[in-house]
């Protein structure tokens, strides 16, 4: 059975019928058993490629609170909505939370670009402090 996941970044469950006619929820896991990375805003980030060139300079840093994946995006959340993401890079080598000062990634696992304000498999949030 093939699972389908949303391309809009929203949490959705697709229902598929099995051979007995029963319906069960199905999604493609991307973060352990979850269907998206829960990316929390964590200050500023800079990304350098392995050749020393700057890919992103002082932009938004994010970290998945579940698997510690780190991402730097040109876009940010403004007034509760994500702006155009633009260039982004991910790195899965952090074992501890990054602090509000952000991070520096030297040689990312993945580089990308999107003109959308969402990425499939990611949810971007701002932390709330009480």
How is this fold's topology laid out?
Elements: E1 14-17, E2 23-26, E3 37-48, E4 54-64, E5 70-73, E6 77-78, E7 81-82, E8 86-91, E9 103-106, E10 110-114, E11 122-125
Parallel strand pairs: 3-9, 3-11
Antiparallel strand pairs: 1-2, 3-4, 4-5, 5-8, 6-7, 8-10
Write a concise synopsis of the structure shown:
By secondary structure, the protein is mostly beta strands. It has strands at residues 14-17, 23-26, 37-48, 54-64, 70-73, 77-78, 81-82, 86-91, 103-106, 110-114, 122-125.
Outline the structure in words.
With 130 residues, the protein is mainly β. The protein has a domain at 37-125. It contains no helices and eleven strands. The protein has strands spanning 14-17, 23-26, 37-48, 54-64, 70-73, 77-78, 81-82, 86-91, 103-106, 110-114, 122-125. The strands form three sheets. Strands 3, 4, 5, 8, 9, 10 and 11 form a seven-stranded mixed beta sheet that branches. A hairpin with a 5-residue loop joins strand 1 and strand 2 (23-26). The chain is globular. The N and C termini lie far apart (44 Å).
Mean pLDDT: 84
Strand coverage percent: 35-45%
How much is the radius of gyration in Å? 16 Å
Topology pattern, helix = H, strand = E: EEEEEEEEEEE
What shape does the CA trace take?
A: globular
Coarse structural class: mainly beta
The N- to C-terminal Cα distance equals 44 Å
Biggest sheet details: 7 strands, mixed
The share of residues in helices is: under 10%
**Helical region count?**
0
Number of strands: 11
Low-confidence stretches: 1-16
């Amino acid at each position: 059975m093939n699972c389908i996941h949303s391309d809009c970044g929203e949490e959705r469950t697709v229902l598929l019928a099995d051979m007995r006619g029963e319906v069960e929820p199905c999604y493609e896991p991307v973060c352990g058993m979850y269907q998206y990375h829960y990316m929390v805003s964590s200050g500023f980030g800079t990304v350098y490629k392995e050749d020393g060139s700057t890919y992103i300079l002082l932009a938004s840093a994010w970290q998945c609170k579940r698997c510690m994946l780190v991402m730097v995006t040109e876009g940010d959340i403004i007034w509760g909505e994500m702006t155009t993401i633009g260039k982004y890079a991910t790195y899965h080598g952090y074992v501890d939370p990054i602090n509000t000062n952000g991070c520096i990634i030297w040689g990312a696992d993945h580089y990308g670009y999107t003109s959308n304000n969402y990425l499939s498999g990611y949810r971007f949030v701002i932390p709330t402090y009480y």
